Amino acid sequence: MIGEIYLKNNEYTFTNRMKRVIELASQLSSPDCISPIHLFLATCQEGTGVCGELNLFLKKVLGPDFIKVFQSKCELINNESVFFYNELKLSETTVDVFNKANEKKDLYKQVLINEGHIIQSIFEVDEKTAILSITPKNDGYDVRIFTPNEEIPFAGHPALGTAYIIQNEIAEEPKGKLILNFKAGQTPVTFDQDEIFWMQQNKPTFGRVFDINKVSDVLNIDKEYIDNRFPIQEVSTGLPVIIVPLRSLEATKKVRINKEKYFELIEHTDAKAIMVFSPETYNAENNLNVRDFADYYGIPEDAATGSSNGCLAAYIVNYRYFDKSEINIRVEQGYEIKRPSLLFLRASEANGEIRVNVGGKVEKIAQGDWFL
């Protein structure tokens, strides 16, 4: 503590709900200063309107004990000044929160500071204090993935994007490895010198084999375009997909999903997506061209599908597509929908077990704020 500063009693004007929040924060902090984490917890505990919705949401996402987790971080930073305001003791960062909230009130031409101003301001000063950094569970971070139609147990590129945000925006100290906890299991993610994010996927399982005639009807192509040296098979490393080997790039270009027959095919299967692949590519540097179709999830065609490519890597090794038990290849995807993507696949088999890693580069393309 490096000093005491007294603020004017009318420095800030709050809504009645925010007054209740501040009173709760004062009780939580007693006998110490109110810190931003006290404000955040008090906002969750106030229980009405947006505050109640926030409480329910965080209980669902972080667990019923999330308040105890955050309370463990309620420590005053020793080198902060103490501010006194209307008989309240405020930490320096709390005053930063109040000042930012006051600016937002003025920006939106409002009369009183409300909980939305405060919550947004807490997260803005959090870059300085790291009070609300996400806490790993079971040595990993809990992740949930949603498609336009439903929640799914695992997805590849959302995993890499999430790892990028944790590594660059959330983790107090960037590490060479982190773990994401999906419903399908834990997924380790590592980072190499080429700025490629690598996820180690679950042990693959190989399921049902499909009839070539039925699948060619779904794809709207002649069955001669399908490479019958290899099976059409359901494979999963967390999210099942039907893998279809094609003979040429011409074949992949011709694929047009017959939706009626597609939904008939997947009605009684675990896999709801179809990935076709070809050894011919647009770019000579790449080893395979793929397309992924997942209308069931509300995604007619995907530009880059890390989960399906992990299944493909396991398939390639299992059936020795390249006549070897280990691969390190480049896969292109998304060309037909004008969103070209590049994925990196590493897989190997030893002692009857296939290990799969899928890699990709991540770029932050947008950033914004949610107003509660």
What is the fold's blueprint, element by element?
Blueprint: E1 4-6, H1 16-29, H2 36-46, H3 49-62, H4 66-71, E2 82-85, E3 88-91, H5 92-107, H6 115-129, E4 141-142, E5 145-146, E6 151-152, H7 156-170, E7 177-182, E8 185-191, E9 197-201, E10 205-209, H8 212-219, E11 233-236, E12 241-245, H9 249-254, H10 259-266, E13 273-278, E14 288-294, E15 299-302, H11 306-318, E16 326-333, E17 341-350, E18 353-360
Helix pairs in contact: 1-2, 2-3, 2-6, 5-6, 8-10
User: Helix share of residues?
Assistant: 25-40%
Q: What structural category characterises the helix and strand content?
A: alpha+beta
Low-confidence stretches: 75-79
Count of alpha/pi helices: 11
The geometry reads as elongated
Gap from first CA to last CA: 33 Å
Polypeptide structure, described:
This protein is α+β, with helices and mostly antiparallel strands and 372 residues long. It is built from 11 helices and 18 strands. 34% of the residues lie in helices and 25% in strands. A hairpin with a 4-residue loop joins β14 and β15 (299-302). The protein is elongated. The two termini are 33 Å apart.
Key traits:
three-stranded mixed sheet, 11 helices, 34% helix, alpha+beta, 372 residues, 13-stranded mixed sheet
